[in-house]
Automatic annotation (TrEMBL):
Membrane topology note: Multi-pass membrane protein
Protein name: MFS transporter
Organism in which the protein naturally occurs: Bacteroides zhangwenhongii
Lineage summary: Bacteria, Pseudomonadati, Bacteroidota, Bacteroidia, Bacteroidales
InterPro entries on file: MFS, MFS_dom, MFS_trans_sf, MFS_TsgA-like
Cell compartment(s), UniProt: Cell inner membrane
Length: 388
């Protein structure tokens, strides 16, 4: 019987990890924004509203999803998210217009919000407590693989088939497979269906200074990555006349670094203090970003982008894990609140776009630099007791 339970747990974990791959589909919005901007002749301010259509929903939907998850369970909520994501992939294939792109991006944001709120706590149902940080980091490794492949697939189908939108066909098929796999496995969930959730619980979390700091870390690291990935192809075009297709591949370089770092982080964080790990990472990220801004050699710039991705890869997993482990009995509520921070992807790009319109993309890149400085300061304040 013990072997049967173990086998069931492993199958459940594998199906959950595959859902992390679907979670990475949201990052295609960065490179897709550049193509949509070209297709519809949008200025930077308007183009940078496209990521807002995705990430705004993390602010709007996260708390209601937390309430829903307490009623129907984590697995069913994850399956709902995958169904919404699949619908988002079909919209631009049916009708490619600016209005329908906005609809598709909105559905992608809603689906990804539901997925991130419910999937991370579901991990807690299949792994030991002392391995939660490590396994969440490994989930981010799977997500990073998906994010890395996105610009490569877009560039490939645009160059070979002449239609970048065919990436949505690939994503739709993978999304269906993910739903079917999760449906077929049995996962024993923690008893949260009758948990009492309300506005007072969320208000209490917002009044918790430590939780609020961790929330700000998630909000800013997501805004940092989406803002950087959205601006990078246009910055390289402006500064070095590098075509968007090639500049978009630089985003893949960033995500390759994230993939490597999240895999390494899953191993290191099982043994090393998350606080010390994050402090070193942020120091490296600031140094690398400074090189990216002020070096003139293209190859050195690409190398700097790689190292920025390497050092920033594990911020989300560390902050999220620290939050849910600080109060495990409120994991669903904390997860919903933390995932609201992903709305940073809607906040930072418009700010950078507005700066770019009145100055240049180079000046707008000082926004993510300031974010890294803040994350370094916050990393010194992580509690040793709440992270493994």
């Amino acid at each position: 019987m013990k072997n049967i339970c173990l086998n069931s747990s492993v199958k459940g974990l594998l199906s959950i990890l595959f859902c992390f791959f679907v979670m990475g589909f949201v990052d295609v919005v960065s490179i897709a924004t550049s193509y949509v901007q070209q297709d519809f002749a949008l200025n930077d301010s308007l183009a940078n509203l496209l990521p807002m259509m995705v990430f705004l929903w993390f602010a709007v939907c996260s708390l209601p999803v937390g309430f829903l998850m307490n009623k129907i369970g984590r697995k069913k909520t994850v399956m709902l998210s995958i169904a919404v994501t699949m619908t988002a992939m079909l919209v631009p294939l049916i009708n490619y217009s600016f209005a329908m792109v906005l609809v598709a991006f909105a559905l992608l944001g809603i689906g990804n919000t539901i997925l991130q709120v419910s999937l991370n706590p579901l991990v807690m149902d299949v792994v030991r407590k002392d391995r939660i940080t490590s396994m969440l980091t490994f989930g981010q490794f799977i997500k990073a693989i998906s994010s890395t492949l996105g610009p490569v697939i877009v560039g490939g189908v645009a160059g070979v088939l002449g239609n970048w939108k065919l990436i949505f066909v690939v994503y739709a098929v993978v999304t269906v497979l993910s739903w079917l796999w999760l449906y077929c496995v049995n996962i024993t969930e923690a008893n949260t269906k009758n948990a009492r959730t309300g506005i007072n619980n969320i208000v209490n979390l917002m009044c918790n200074r430590y939780i609020l700091m961790l929330f700000s870390m998630i909000l800013l690291i997501v805004g940092f990555e989406i803002g950087l990935m959205t601006t990078l192809p246009k910055y390289l075009l402006e500064q070095y006349d590098i075509p968007i297709e090639r500049g978009g591949l630089t985003c893949s370089l960033y995500f390759i670094a994230r993939t490597i770092a999240t895999f390494g982080g899953a191993i290191i964080l099982a043994k090393v203090s998350s606080r010390k790990f994050l402090i070193i990472s942020m120091l490296g990220a600031i140094l690398s970003f400074g090189c990216f801004l002020f070096l003139e050699s293209q190859w050195l710039i690409f190398t700097a982008v790689f190292f920025v991705g390497l050092f920033c890869a594990n911020v989300f997993a560390v902050a999220f894990s620290a939050a849910i482990q600080s109060q495990p009995d409120k994991a669903n509520d904390i997860s919903a609140f933390m995932i609201m921070g992903v709305a940073g992807g809607a906040l930072i790009p418009p700010i950078m776009g507005g700066i770019a319109d009145v100055s240049s993309h180079f000046i707008s890149l000082f926004v993510p630099l300031l974010i890294l400085v803040y994350l370094l300061v916050a990393s010194f304040k992580l509690n040793h007791s709440s992270i493994k």
